[in-house]
């Protein structure tokens, strides 16, 4: 299971980097939604690789963390004038669509992890 989860993390990282550098047709909506869609699954798979937590705990923990980050934005504790690394890691502007992207990403990652776990006979 650890190898599968490392592959999941690598795939999410690759997708996130693609979203970050792509500038072709439709890049603005892709950048807006796509990055948020893959960041929570990336953190989920990384957390599982490093800690071996049960998948349910990892999913809820990462989702709660993502919601907390969005809450920081809603409280305006970050701003668009923050350095690029802050904007890429924490963001700067509250958007409820981000919550949808985090939730959808976590549902997809959890479902994929569960399905692969059943197939591989892994627990967790």
Commentary on this structure:
This protein has 124 residues and is mainly α. Helices cover 77% and strands 0% of the residues. It contains 5 helices and no strands. Helix 2 (27-51) packs across helix 3.
Distance between the termini: 9 Å
Radius of gyration: 15 Å
SSE class: mainly alpha
- Report the oligomer: single chain
Residue runs with pLDDT of under 50 for 5 or more positions: none
What is the number of strand segments?
A: 0
Helix content: over 70%
SSE string, helix = H, strand = E?
Answer: HHHHH
Largest sheet, strands/sense/barrel: none
Q: How many separate helices?
A: 5
Please, what is the average pLDDT?
89
C-alpha geometry: globular
Count of discrete structural domains: 1
Short description:
It is built from 5 helices and no strands. It has helices spanning 2-21, 27-51, 55-74, 84-89, 96-120.
Helices and strands, with pairings:
Layout: H1 2-21, H2 27-51, H3 55-74, H4 84-89, H5 96-120
Helix pairs in contact: 1-2, 2-3, 2-5, 3-5
